[in-house]
Amino acid sequence: MFETLKEQPADKILMLMQAFKEDPREQKIDLGVGVYKDASGNTPIMRAIKTAEQQLWQAETTKSYTGLAGDPAFGDAMIRLVLGDAVPRANVAAAAQPGGTGAVRQGFDLIRQANPGARVFVSDPTWPNHLSILKHMGIEMVPYRYFDDDTRGVAFDAMLEDIGQARKGDVVLLHGCCHNPTGANLNITQWKEVVASLQKTGATPMIDIAYQGFGDGLEDDAAATRLIASSLPECLIAASCSKNFGIYRERTGILMAVSQDAGAQKLNQGTLNYLNRQNFSFPPDHGARLVTMILNDDALRADWQAEVEDMRKLMLTLREQLASELQRLSGSDRFGFIAQHRGMFSRLGATPEQVEKMRVDHGIYMVGDSRLNIAGLNKTSVPILAQAIVDAGV
Ligand code: PMP
Predict the structure, then answer these.
(1) Structural domain that includes position 218
(2) Who has the most CB within 10 Å: 278, 290, 308, 313?
(3) In testing the pocket of ligand 1, which one of 129, 212, 237, 346 has its CB within 8 Å of the most ligand atoms?
């Protein structure tokens, strides 16, 4: 029967990774896949993770099953990290998931369970997996305008107009910080307007937060999520630990459902447990356990925070270097947005032909929509990229 299967489209970013690998040029630059890289181009295991792994190896006495929602201590620690004290702990249901992707997928499953007719409003553009998972699940999606091609900032009025079309029973999917793929983000005043819109329409927000700590710092990056969680009757939060703990392959994430009271929380928790059971029973534990150990230990936590802060600052420095090199070469301020953007990515606003030209002429690999991974740069490659951008006529 499997002969009936259809060929699925290949993942564009994974194809790009492959093409990069096969490029024999020594000076090639990989700005494609979204993993953090240090100044030497490595994706390091963070110090606190290494220490926690050593401690865990010594202390762990069983690999027996945890709970359906994962270890409750992971839930507690992550709720604190993401939500601080914005909402009472008793109002939050949470379940560990295989990565942020698992959390997003499970969030959509919860939405479908609650309202099979729900439409999910997605930013245009958004992380492509949002779209492909929604399509796979047969959930209707409605794009909302987000990126202003001229300023390379947020097209905020257009966004507000579009999300204002959502109704009660619909979901508005938002990036908590460090928007992927654009790098353009709302300021807190704009977030307040988004809250007012959601209050007016009664639509439910779902926040995808995959880069906490990579934008303006761990606390500032959670501000929008906290504002939404504390201002609206309910919301969903899908958080990933892949980036800010550097544990991509451990598949560590969490889905939270925030409600107004303990009764709703109980129902949400029961449904989250149920959904985990239907999909994979128990979520992966290793990464979640390391994260819990780090967040609950003063010394490990301080070391982790310091390292996340170093990573964040390195990306900011690269942004500033690239923006100023572009200003020097182009004699204009039109690339200033690169220093304004936050997180690992910036959408350059180049055409597919210009992106292709940079690949052919300079061995620079970025996603076809001209998303570049800032962490893929270093002091040496910044001037090469800047020259290529100017040469391509961006
Ligand atoms: N959401 C967004 C917006 C992302 O960019 C990513 C990572 N590319 C994720 C979720 C999930 O990442 P992971 O499944 O690796 O934790």
Answers:
(1) 65-296
(2) 290
(3) 129
Residue 53 lies in a domain: no
The shares of helix, strand and coil residues in the chain, as percent rounded to the nearest 5, are 50, 15, 35
CA distance 390 to 326: 8
- The pLDDT of residue 391: 94
Could you tell me if the CB of 248 is within 6 A of ligand 1? yes
Q: Tens of pLDDT along 116-142?
A: 999 999 999 999 999 999 999 999 999
Does residue 155 belong to any structural domain of this protein? yes
Candidates 293, 287, 278; CA nearest to 68 is 278
238 has which bridge partners? 208, 255
Residues 113 and 158 in one domain: yes
Q: Report the CATH number at residue 324.
A: 3.90.1150.10
Please tell me whether residues 278 and 323 are part of one structural domain. Answer: no
Domains held by the chain: number: 2
Same domain, 329 and 379: yes
Q: Is 100 in the pocket of ligand 1 (CB under 6 A)?
A: yes
Query: What's the pLDDT score for residue 267?
Result: 97
Give the residue whose CA is nearest to atom 5 of ligand 1: 180
Helices marked H in 92-211 — which ranges?
99-114, 128-137, 156-163, 188-201
Domain-located, residue 54: no
Q: Give every residue of the chain whose pLDDT is below 70, as ranges.
A: none
Q: Is the bond leading into 143 cis (omega within 30 degrees of zero)? A: no
Give residue 282's pLDDT: 98
Domain containing residue 148: CATH number: 3.40.640.10
Ligand 1 lined by 99 (C-beta under 6 Å): yes
208 is annotated as an active-site residue: yes
Q: Which atom of ligand 1 is nearest to the CA of 127?
A: 3
pLDDT digits (tens, 9 = 90+) for 261-303: 889 999 999 999 999 999 999 999 999 999 999 999 999 999 9
- Residue 17 confidence (pLDDT): 87
